[in-house]
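Entry 12.
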Amino acid sequence: MRIQRTLKMLQRTDFAVYVMDINDIGTDTNNDTDASTDTNTSANTNTNNNANTNNNTNTNTNTNTNTNTNANTNANANANTNTNTNTDTDSKNDDNDYLEMAKLFKKYNIPHMLVINKIDTVSQEQVKEAAKKFKDAVFVSTKDWQSILALKDELIKRLSEDEKEPPIVGDLIPYNGKVILVVPVDSEAPKGRIILPQVQVIRDCLDHGIKSYVVRDTELESALSDLRDIDLVITDSQAFKKVSETVPETIKLTSFSILFARYKGDLETFVKGVSKVDELNENSKVLIAESCTHNQSHEDIGRVKIPRLLNKHVGKELRYDFKMGHDFPENIEDYDLIIHCGACMMNKKSLQTRIDLCMEKGVSITNYGVLLAYLTGILDRSLEIFNLNY
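Predicted 3D structure (tokens):
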């Protein structure tokens, strides 16, 4: 596929395949040869023109004939010069297109593969030259089935390498450790199931031999009495205040959202970004970004609870914009603070791209869990498990 140079495309790209026609690859050798040939042609033409004009002074007919002939010769020489120059410029531009795109892939942490096709239309020498210029490229021809199979194998190999992900909680808790997951059941909770972050944490615990106990916030106190040697309590961010009052200080506490801030984003950047809250005023503009497109309710955390708590903390009515799914604005510099959800419906690269854009524009960004921990006064406690301090 061909990747368009748009911000939204880059935000949604997990892995890029850039396809280049081998006939579009420019070579410096051809440019030098063409330039020399054209210069010599022009020089010879001008010399002949002067000679003919001087020798045929007395013969008007011959003078006109020679002048016309020489004029045509010059016109043809110039036409060739323009044709060669344009061809080489196009080739160089095609090379530059890829090099510019490769810089963007690197900037936004997007792994990519360069595929050079139509190799059956050029000589083996040209293929070797292209291989020297683009060492990591994969060369294919639709007329060579083996090259297509090799492309598929290479693509599978690179995608498999990209699939390796860090643990969510498995590196924080020892084998055979105990974790309590606090899952409030309110009007926001889906019927008949639990939400994706909770499912993923449970699976990560299973993968690493960690015992997980799932309770509602209303049964947390009795669960703490039933269990001993608890390593960590993980709560839904909305219940932070109540849970922090219930869980003893001797037991570490954090939230699903903060875990995902580390797992999919950049926890340290989110922690730094939350300090912007104390600089907000009535003229401040806040963007609340969610990765999914769920239906909102009167208890919606992003559109109701966070604005309410933030306004109360600042003591002013702030201005808010809300974006969902892939609808992330390009004018992020217009905002004083961006508050992102836990990004359970996004991949790590997509969220990291958004963080990088904010850093590039000098805009503070944080996430739901970090913000709610800060607003309830327990941010330091919620970061203890990560050996971080606010």
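Annotation: Residues 266-386 form a domain with the Rossmann fold fold (CATH 3.40.50.11410). The mean pLDDT is 81.
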